[in-house]
Every structure is written in structure tokens, then in C-alpha cells.
Write a structure and sequence with these properties.
The chain has 119 residues and is mostly beta strands. It has strands at 5-6, 10-11, 15-19, 26-28, 33-41, 44-51, 54-59, 64-79, 84-89, 93-96, 101-118.
């Protein structure tokens, strides 16, 4: 298990939750998603996220963005505005910018670090 250390606080404890994409956003399969929230702040959340193979539509608010680093697996972010996608593999990082509309597709079971910022 990967550990996260917080300056001035030491080792972060993990609160885990399991969820599934909203039915109205499902594109392929109904993948189980495991979120380990390791750090929460009023405007930021960081942790480890894992997901089975599948795809669902995403709509990011104007005030929300996410940085992530893929530890295992492969994901694709399909951009609805440009009708194309980027593929992010283990060892690579990505950003989902504010107002992004598209599809999040898990090609191979994925595990990633994430940081979500909402202002």
C-alpha cells in the first residue's frame, strides 16, 4: 500500500469508499471505483483511486480541476468538443481542466494518485 505523509501531521489515514458511475452517464460496463481519500481540505481532496474497466461521461464544473498520476493501468480521456482522446498509461500524468466535458474510459484496470481542486 502506498502511504502519504502530510507535513506537520505525519502519516495520513485512509477513508475508503466504493461507488459506481451514475446510470445516466454510463457508456460501457458498470465499473466499481474505490477511492481512498488521504487528505481533505475545503478546496482540495487528494488520495488514491482505483477502477475496473469501463467508461462513463464526465462533466467538470467551471471551478473544478484534477491532476492525476497513473500508477497502474491505462485510461483514455475523450474530449467531446474535439472528438478525440488522449491515452494516459502507468508512469504518466494528466490534468482534467475546469469545464471539461467528455468520457473517462478505463482500458486496463487503473490505480492513480489524484488531487482535485475546487475553488
Amino acid at each position: 500500500m502506498t502511504q502519504l505523509y502530510i507535513a506537520g501531521q505525519g502519516l495520513a489515514t485512509s477513508d475508503s469508499s466504493i461507488d459506481y458511475p451514475r446510470p445516466d452517464r454510463l457508456v460501457k460496463n458498470n465499473p466499481q471505483r474505490l477511492t481512498q481519500s488521504l487528505y481533505e481540505h475545503p478546496n482540495m481532496n487528494a488520495g488514491i483511486w482505483q477502477c475496473e474497466v469501463g467508461a462513463w461521461n464526465i462533466v467538470f464544473a467551471d471551478n473544478k480541476q484534477e491532476f492525476f498520476h497513473v500508477l497502474e493501468g491505462v485510461v483514455r480521456l475523450h474530449d467531446s468538443a474535439h472528438q478525440d482522446f488522449i491515452e494516459i498509461k502507468a508512469g504518466d500524468a494528466g490534468v482534467i481542466p475546469p469545464s471539461f466535458v467528455g468520457t473517462f474510459e478505463v482500458i486496463e484496470k487503473v490505480k492513480k494518485y489524484f488531487v482535485v481542486v475546487e475553488t
